[in-house]
Specification:
Largest sheet: 5 strands, antiparallel
Radius of gyration: 16 Å
Number of strands: 5
Strand content: 15-25%
Helix content: 25-40%
């Protein structure tokens, strides 16, 4: 199944969840590896969630959602299946949980994921993301990059 990419820059990858709770279920993933949120420096968490906010606007508008949830699991007990920080943006619709429970996950088709990614991507403003990120502290450089610049 091809990756249904929504956005990518030097620090983040945004793509569709192939097991969505609802149409438009999107993942925001830092490229730098951290097992869980507690291991990320606060400035990087701030950059991650700043991007989550911008992407959420595009997701909600693209699928005409009535609301959305932002979720981030840390540890096996919290149902973290992939040991790498990632944030779920889950569009919500008034009729999706009449009993108050979460809708069930499903396997989405490649066509659905690619089509939805394109709708969201068309609403993402990279200039806005760059401007927002320029207002925040920079991402911490990797250890090797720091050593390379120390010479």
């Amino acid at each position: 199944m091809p990756i249904a990419e929504v956005y990518q820059d030097d620090n983040f990858l945004v793509l569709m969840d192939k097991y969505p709770i609802n149409i438009g279920h999107t993942l925001v993933i830092p490229k730098k590896h951290y097992d869980n949120l507690l291991l990320m420096p606060p400035a990087e968490v701030g950059r991650l969630y700043s991007l989550v906010t911008i992407i959420s606007e595009s997701v909600v508008a693209s699928v005409n959602a009535d609301g959305f949830n932002v979720g981030q699991n840390n540890g096996i007990a919290a149902n973290q299946i992939v040991p790498h920080v990632h944030v779920h943006i889950v569009p919500r619709f008034k009729p999706d949980s009449p009993d108050g429970k979460w809708p069930k996950r499903r396997v989405a088709s490649s066509d659905e994921l690619l089509e939805t990614a394109e709708k969201i991507r068309s609403r993402v403003n990279p200039s806005r993301i760059q401007h927002t990120m320029s207002q925040l502290p920079p991402m911490r450089q990797r250890h090797q990059e720091l050593l390379d610049h120390a010479d």
